[in-house]
Amino acid sequence: MLPDKDEKGNYPSHTGPGGYPLVYISQNRKDICAVCASKKRDERDEIVGVVLYWEGMAILCDECGEINLESAYGEIDEENQ
Ligand SMILES: [Zn+2]
User: Fold this and answer.
1) Which DSSP string corresponds to the chain?
2) Domain limits of the chain?
3) Is the separation of the CB atoms in 40 and 9 below 8 Å?
4) How far, in Å, from the CA of 46 to the mean position of ligand 1?
5) pLDDT tens-place string over residues 15-61
6) Ligand 1 mean position, distance from CA 78 (Å)
């Protein structure tokens, strides 16, 4: 289930309530930022899902390679717990 696009036809980069970061997943299993997800997509690589990115390293969008997709709680270092 994908979120609604806004009035400009863009997917949100964060959830409305809470402001948690969203990572879009394409048919080819790429991690995609909201900007690229909102662009016209190749029909063989459409957006098929979206996940809330809770924790972990910031990742780069597999498509533009520019926007850091940062997790809500950052990188968890288990050795220091
Ligand atoms: Zn991107």
Assistant:
1) -PPPP-TTS---SB-TTT--BEEEEETT--EE-HHHHHS---TTS-EEEEEE--SS--EE-TTTS-SEE--SS----GGG-
2) 1-69
3) no
4) 14
5) 988 899 999 999 999 999 999 999 988 999 999 999 999 999 999 99
6) 29
